[in-house]
Structures are given as structure tokens and as C-alpha cells.
């Protein structure tokens, strides 16, 4: 009886959870793929070490901006950590 209730609850909650999770997973995979493709593109240049470093730094800053822009609670969390490091 308990197992049936648990399975019913899981089945009932899975569809709404996936409706929220799938776009987020696809966005994260897109950002990671973009960083990998950027690194592959600059890896064939003459000074590839500097270019790869610049692309990696740009990718980190871009992902940080996206993270802080889309999640208001993350802004206060990152700001709090930054203030703790300074003070």
C-alpha cells in the first residue's frame, strides 16, 4: 500500500518537474558546448595558449553574468562572499 502511494506521488510530480528542468538542462548544455567550440576554434591559432586563456576567461565571465542575471538570490550570495573576502 505504501509503495503504491509513493509510486503515485512520484508519477504525479515527475511531469511538472521535467517541464521545469529540461529547458534549464538544455541551456546549461548549450553554454558548455559554446565554451568547448570557442576553445576548439582558437586552439589552431599561432599563439593558441594566450587565445585559449582569453576564451576560458571570457567563458567564465559570461557564465557568471548569466548566473547572476537569471537568479536574484545568487546575486546576494556572490556579493556576500565577495564582501567576506574583502573584509
Structural notes for this entry:
Helices cover 91% and strands 0% of the residues. It has three helices and no strands. Helix 1 packs antiparallel against helix 2 and helix 2 packs across helix 3 (72-86). It starts with a helix and ends with a helix.
Structural class based on helices, strands and sheet pairing: mainly alpha
Following the backbone from N to C, one meets helices and strands in this order, namely: HHH
The major sheet is characterized as: none
How many domains? The number is 1
Radius of gyration: 20 Å
How many distinct beta strands? 0
The rough form would be described as elongated
How much helical structure, as a percent, in the residues? over 70%
Give the N-to-C terminal Cα separation: 56 Å
Give unreliable regions as ranges: none
Strand content: under 5%
Number of H- or I-type helical stretches: 3
Report the average pLDDT across residues.
Answer: 77
Amino acid at each position: 500500500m505504501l509503495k503504491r502511494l509513493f509510486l503515485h506521488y512520484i508519477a504525479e510530480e515527475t511531469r511538472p518537474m521535467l517541464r521545469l528542468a529540461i529547458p534549464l538542462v538544455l541551456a546549461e548544455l548549450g553554454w558548455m558546448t559554446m565554451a568547448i567550440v570557442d576553445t576548439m576554434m582558437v586552439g589552431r591559432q599561432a599563439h593558441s595558449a594566450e587565445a585559449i586563456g582569453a576564451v576560458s576567461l571570457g567563458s567564465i565571465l559570461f557564465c557568471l553574468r548569466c548566473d547572476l542575471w537569471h537568479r536574484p538570490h545568487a546575486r546576494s550570495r556572490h556579493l556576500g562572499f565577495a564582501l567576506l573576502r574583502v573584509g
